[in-house]
User: What shape does this take?
Amino acid sequence: MKITVLAGDGIGVEVTREAVKVLRAVAGVFDLAIETDEQLIGGAGIREKGSPFPDETRAACLASDAVLLGAVGSPEFDDLLPENRPEIGLLNLRQALGGFANLRPSKAFPALIDSSPLRREIFEGTDLLIVRELLGGLYFGRPRAISETEAYNTMRYSVAEVERVARVAFEAARTRKQKVTSVDKANVLETSRLWRQTVERVAKDYPEIALEHLFVDACAMHLVTNPTRFDVVLTENLFGDILSDEAAVLTGSLGMLASATIGGAIDLYEPVHGSAPDIAGKNIANPLGAIASVAMLLRYTAKQPEAADAIERAIEKALEEGHRTADLTTDRENFAKTDELGELVARSATEFARKRANSRAV
Ligand code: NAD
Assistant: This one.
């Protein structure tokens, strides 16, 4: 596999270094040939090449199997016009890769349950994946306009757009707890009725997967009152934007969250957080979101679920053993540094991977 690595700015550089370390460690055990190509994006691209998304970066990304991104954004460029700032690099990247399905897992790590805003008994056992349609719906629909006295947007979906993202959700459910919750507003919106009909048709190809439909308002409520009822949550762009942030905060720390954008020319993996200029360069950022993004890459693009499992188990083990970066503890003296936690996870993921590889050989 050829992976373009775009560390970007701020803590993007620090967490991506650890993620690549873990990827290499696990790939070594399973004999996966992985070639990485580091390129510039964001502020780093502006500084060295005069562009937040240099042509070389675009070409490298389009010639790879997957892209691993750190984060973009730097206060140094705050005075630039919005169209020239580092963040544009990320928008250009997403457009170039063209992914239509955004996947965001949200999980209750036993060791971190008390960091959640939810009560332990509600959050314990939560393990869900939001699959959000990313290229359609209200954000892109035309016509759209604003005048002095009114404004409007158009929510539009085609059967093909719904079908392709629904397949991503059902395929993901196959490797998880075999359940899809499709979220819409079919009591009010025509787009939602089309969404529901299409999802039901796709579901016929996946008889082993349980399908339920929920209205978006009910889903928002269930996410905070009964999150363990969910496995894969499939939804359109606007609803997914809101629900994925709601699900994200349940876990307690932004630094833990991974994401994937798949279905386009090239798959993109990135932690959910930004470049965190307030803690950049101090070796104190939490690398687990970036490391978990690599696990997603192995699961969804490389189709190596055992390698992905090894990384996810190593993350859990590190937390269970009490290793915490500064964002996960109130102890201001004793906490794990970014590179220490990365090293630890790499070592333990290697052990898990070896055990799995050996049992396969037997
Ligand atoms: P942020 O996610 O960078 O930081 C928000 C807060 O969370 C900060 O206090 C930060 O220290 C903390 N934090 C974030 N990630 C962490 C980690 N891994 N470990 C420990 N603490 C962590 O969001 P922001 O401060 O609003 O934005 C900073 C810059 O990042 C801006 O330039 C913004 O445009 C950019 N940004 C980029 C992305 C991206 O690249 N995907 C996403 C969001 C923001």
Observations:
- The CA atoms of residues 283 and 338 lie 5 Å apart.
- The chain has a mean pLDDT of 96.
